[in-house]
Design goal:
Layout lengths: L6 H38 L2
């Protein structure tokens, strides 16, 4: 059984998880925008 975490430790872990999730969201959106731009560029110049 894992050790119990204090409230401060749990909040710190949750905060880091939220930051990491937002960073992943930004990375995925940027990658999607890049693919979209490449697709548009290829369609405009066959």
């Amino acid at each position: 059984m894992p050790p119990m975490l204090s409230r401060d430790e749990s909040e710190a872990i949750a905060r880091r998880r939220r930051i990491r999730n937002r960073a992943m969201l930004v990375a995925l959106l940027a990658l999607s925008a890049l693919f979209y731009a490449i697709t548009l560029a290829k369609m405009a110049h066959p």
